[in-house]
Amino acid sequence: MATQDTVSLFAMLLALASLTGCATNPDVGSLTGDQRARVASMEVVRGPTTRPHTVLAAVKGLSCHRNAYQRQQLTEAEAIEGVKLRAASLDADAVVNVVCQINSGADWINNCWSSIVCVGDAVQYKD
Fold first, then answer.
1. In three state form, how does the secondary structure of the chain look?
2. Which CATH architecture has domain 22-125?
3. Sheet of 94-103: strands edge to edge?
4. Domain locations in the chain as residue ranges
5. Is there a contact between 84 and 97 (Cβ–Cβ < 8 Å)?
6. How do residues 14-40 score in pLDDT, each as one tens digit?
7. 10 CB burial (10 A radius; 0-12, 13-18, 19+)
C-alpha cells in the first residue's frame, strides 16, 4: 500500500511534468510586423560567422512527433523555422552555429515520441 509521502511525491512529479511538457515553436501571431519580416530574411549559418556580431542568446527549434499512433513527418526545416522565430523575437539579424540532432527514441524533455531539435546563437550584426 502506498504511503502518504509516496502519493504526495507522485502528485508533485505529475504537476511538474504538466508544467514542463509540450515544448513547441513560437506562434507567428506573437511576432510584430518587423519581427515577421526578420524571419522571412533571416540568415541561418551552420558554422561561425566572420562578420562582427553580438550574441543575444541561444535559441532552440523543434520538430516533434507527439502521437505514437499517427505518422507525422519530422523535418529539420520545421526545427530551423523554430530557431528563426525565436531569434526574430529577440530582434536578431541571423542565427549562427546551428546544429541539429535527431532523437529517434522518446524525447521526454519535449514530450515527443521522436524529434529533431536545432540549436543556434541568435546574433545582431555590428555593421
1. CCCHHHHHHHHHHHHHHHHHCCCCCCCHHHCCHHHHHHHHHCEECCCCCCCCEEEEEEEEEEEEECCCCCCCCCCHHHHHHHHHHHHHHCCCCEEEEEEEEEECCCECCCCECEEEEEEEEEEEECC
2. 2-Layer Sandwich (3.30)
3. 43-44, 94-103, 114-125, 53-65
4. 22-125
5. no
6. 333 333 345 688 888 888 899 888 999
7. exposed
